[in-house]
Write a structure and sequence with these properties.
Number of helices: 3
Number of domains: 1
Order of helices and strands: HHH
Low-confidence stretches: none
């Protein structure tokens, strides 16, 4: 599920509003560990651009 989340976030990264919406949704769905991994990945790959 984490890899799927990353794929979707990459695809919606053109829109901050949509990115935020999907990110929040995945944080609720994922386990605490996966949520932390997603948060770190998002900072490194999406927000650093």
């Amino acid at each position: 599920m984490l890899e799927y989340s990353k794929l979707i976030l990459k695809k919606v990264s053109f829109s901050r509003r949509l990115l935020r919406k999907e990110y929040k949704k995945f944080r609720l769905i994922l386990s605490e560990r996966e949520g932390s991994d997603l948060k770190q990945w998002t900072r490194e790959h999406i927000l650093s651009k």
